[in-house]
Amino acid sequence: MNFAGRPIGQGGETARLSFENIRHSYGQGDIVRGVSLAASPGEVLCLLGPSGSGKSTLLRIAAGLEVPQHGRLLIDGVEVTGPSAFLPPERRGVGLMFQDFALFPHMTVGDNVAFGLQRLARSTRLAAVDEALARVGLDGYRDKYPHMLSGGEQQRVALARAVAPRPSVLLMDEPFSGLDSRLKDQVRAETLSVLRETGATVIIVTHDPQEAMGVADRIALLRDGCLVQVGSPRALFARPKDLFTAAFFSEINRFDADVHEGHVDTPFGRRSVLSTTAEGPVTVAVRPGDIRLFEEATLSATPAEVMERRFLGTEERFRLRTEDSRHILEASASAGQISEGAERVFIEVADQTILVFENQRQTPYTRDN
Ligand code: ADP
Ligand code: MG
């Protein structure tokens, strides 16, 4: 229910946000090319993609800061951007949190958080500020100034400011990128738990696949303004639709091969492929972590020479060369699993971790300009 005069999606409910065939250009060439995507109420949806893929543009369109040339944007079924409507940002009831999360340095924490609450009566406003600060674990910080706070605390103030008006949709553009990496995990976890508590529908933009997997219910992977694949982190990681998606989530070993009579020859032996895979050239891809290493030969293992090894703490990285076919592979193993000085190992790769992409459907991980 939306009451007259009250922004859509405000008041602590949760909302569905839908992009319908959004196209956008800043003048030359389309930056967003026909994106249709919906975030369900209460969902944390990540827009993930390399720099320049149109993530921020989509978010700005959702916020009402950018007007697309085509398509519609709906919040709970109400058209807020489209041929017949445009609702300005402040009337949409969406919360925004951007990369630099700039707090006003000359204003107290309390005044910063109250920034989006000017329309409320003073006593209600103060109560809302206190509630938001309590939510992010900063009770008692109201009269401090931003410079008195650590980076993580400033981030929490920015979060409090974003959630204080109780938006039902929260749009966050690379909200953790300003934090150093040690702080990031903790702030991310705290932020997520606050977001879950508020029940808001959240769209988070990031270019970092680890971050997306860590926070998202679903990931929408963008490339050159188009959606490549949408699904749970697990689905995108385990069943990437193409090589671009596979390579975006982790380093990957890739080999050219041919499918013939339902089989493909890989560096780890002949494997059968799905019956839907067409005959002809394919790319076979395997993640380093899916290559298992042994010091003793097994029946199905492929011998390989250790060319290089790097100790990374919990894991070790190996550069290997298969003895028969002279393929070069990157593999990882738990630290200490392979004895120091080992010159030869045996590798095994489970069928389900071998990804086979038909070449005609494959898209290289580069921008085609
Ligand atoms: P991302 O957030 O995925 O890095 P953006 O949506 O910011 O991508 O930008 C996509 C493309 O649009 C980039 O090539 C960028 O240079 C261009 N772009 C973004 N904003 C503007 C603008 N205001 N005017 C012109 N070009 C822009
Ligand atoms: Mg961006």
Task: Give an account of the 3D structure.
The chain is an alpha+beta fold and 369 residues long. The chain folds into 2 domains: 222 residues, P-loop containing nucleotide triphosphate hydrolases (Rossmann fold), CATH 3.40.50.300; 98 residues, OB fold (Dihydrolipoamide Acetyltransferase, E2P) (Beta Barrel), CATH 2.40.50. The protein is 23% helix and 34% strand. The radius of gyration is 25 Å and the shape is globular. The protein binds adenosine-5'-diphosphate and magnesium ion. The site of adenosine-5'-diphosphate has 10 residues, from α1.
CATH architecture annotation name of the largest domain: 3-Layer(aba) Sandwich
CATH homologous group name of the largest domain: P-loop containing nucleotide triphosphate hydrolases
What is the number of beta strands?
21
Beta-strand fraction estimate: 25-35%
Bound molecules: adenosine-5'-diphosphate, magnesium ion
Please, what is the average pLDDT?
Answer: 90
Which word captures the global form?
globular
SSE class = alpha+beta
CATH topology of the largest domain: Rossmann fold
- Strand line-up across the major sheet: 7-8-9-3-10-11
Look at the structure and give the CATH class of the largest domain.
Alpha Beta
Oligomer: single chain
Alpha carbon gyration radius: 25 Å
Order of helices and strands: EEEHEEEHEHHHEHEHEEHHEEEEEEEEEE
How many domains? The number is 2
Q: Which consecutive residue ranges, at least 5 long each, have pLDDT under 50?
A: 1-6, 361-369
- What summary fits the major beta sheet? 6 strands, mixed
What percent of residues adopt helix (DSSP H or I)? 10-25%
Number of helix segments? 9
